């Protein structure tokens, strides 16, 4: 194992979620999680004990979970060769049409402050502040200063792991994980219908809808409707 991988694994192992969101990720909407990522400054290792704490604040925005299949994943762009090989393995293991969930996130950093206090005292004050605000999704993470983004990624992984069974259960109870003709999950068909409506209202780019239809291999099925919509918007 090289030095960089060792540092990353060390940062992940020493990341603690001190305050978890008190709700699961939303199954049918966007989840907006405000986080406080607490670290001891890197320079404390050089100069000895420093009674200071770094506070990074921001939002992790979790998009609505998307129903996907291994076949769909193999057609996504922006993934490395290794990731694509992994999707191919999923396809062979579970079949092309096995439904699953795909989560996407966006991190919006809000600021960084260094306060003159030790981290347990800072966490205690933050908990009081969060309780006063009554935000059920606010979270506190204790991470590593030089690899704070690794700590944030571990947090994202944990909240996803805590939510996935609830999300699947809710989708399944509505019959959205069942398969429609053509090997497309019912929930994915529903999403396509929503995208048609969003394009009609000007809330979605027609190119995004075209991409989604192509990923499911159903563009020909919808092409007359798609072209009529696009022509109507010109």
Short description:
By secondary structure, the chain is of the alpha+beta class.
Q: Gap between N and C termini, in Å?
A: 56 Å
> Whole-number average pLDDT?
90
Cα radius of gyration in angstroms: 22 Å
Query: Roughly how much helix do the residues carry, as a percent range?
Result: 40-55%
Described by its quaternary structure, the protein is: single chain
Q: What general form does the structure show?
A: elongated
Can you offer a commentary on this structure?
With 234 residues, the chain is an alpha+beta fold. It has two domains: 3-65 and 103-174, no CATH class; 178-234, no CATH class. It is built from nine helices and nine strands. It has a five-stranded mixed beta sheet with strand order 1-7-2-3-6, with helices on both faces. It has a two-stranded antiparallel ribbon with strand order 4-5. Strand 8 (179-180) and strand 9 form a beta hairpin. Helix 8 (206-215) packs antiparallel against helix 9. The N and C termini lie far apart (56 Å).
């Amino acid at each position: 194992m090289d030095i960089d991988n060792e540092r990353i694994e060390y940062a992940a192992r020493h990341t603690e979620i001190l305050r978890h969101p008190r709700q699961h990720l939303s199954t049918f909407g966007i989840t907006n999680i405000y986080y406080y990522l607490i670290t001891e400054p890197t320079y404390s290792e050089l100069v000895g004990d420093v009674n200071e704490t770094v506070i990074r604040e921001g939002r992790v925005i979790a998009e609505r979970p998307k129903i996907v299949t291994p076949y769909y994943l193999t057609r996504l762009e922006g993934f490395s060769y290794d990731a694509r090989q992994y999707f191919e393995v999923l396809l062979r293991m579970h079949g092309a049409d096995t439904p699953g969930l795909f989560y996407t996130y966006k991190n919006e950093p809000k600021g960084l402050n260094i306060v003159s206090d030790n981290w347990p005292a800072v966490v205690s004050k933050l908990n009081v502040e969060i309780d006063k605000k009554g935000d059920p999704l606010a979270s506190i993470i204790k991470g590593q200063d030089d690899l704070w983004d690794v700590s944030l990624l571990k947090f994202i992984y944990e909240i996803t792991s805590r939510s996935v069974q609830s999300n699947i259960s809710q989708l399944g109870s509505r019959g959205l994980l069942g398969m429609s003709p053509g090997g497309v999950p019912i929930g994915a068909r529903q999403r396509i219908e929503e995208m048609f409506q969003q394009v009609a209202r000007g809330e979605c780019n027609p190119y995004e809808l075209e991409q989604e239809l192509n990923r499911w291999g159903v563009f020909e099925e919808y092409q007359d409707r798609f072209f009529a919509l696009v022509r109507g918007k010109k």
